[in-house]
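Below is our example:

___
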Amino acid sequence: MSELRKANSDRPFFVTFPVVGWIDVFTRAAYCDIFLSSLDFCRKHKGLKVYAYCIMSSHVHLIISHEESRLPDILRDLKSFTAKQIIAAIESNPQESRRDWLLYLFKFFAN
């Protein structure tokens, strides 16, 4: 990736990242809450500055910055931790009507 396109300054960046396969996982409030608690953790403990966010059904928009220019590391951790938590929540929720379909798609895109 070009150095010009990497988030390696302390200025705010507009970041968009989709759920793998553009799966509409954020239609459930519980999964949005998992993302928001992960985002809050990064804000409180990793120095992430969040100016704005918008959670769409299959992706997230953020305007964020970090004083030490560590956005790539923080975003990697945020996405990885959040994905694991959402998958665990789907697996343990017997009332999730799309559980088998969602887990199948996550495994498919992981390969």
In short: The first helix runs from residue 29 to 45.
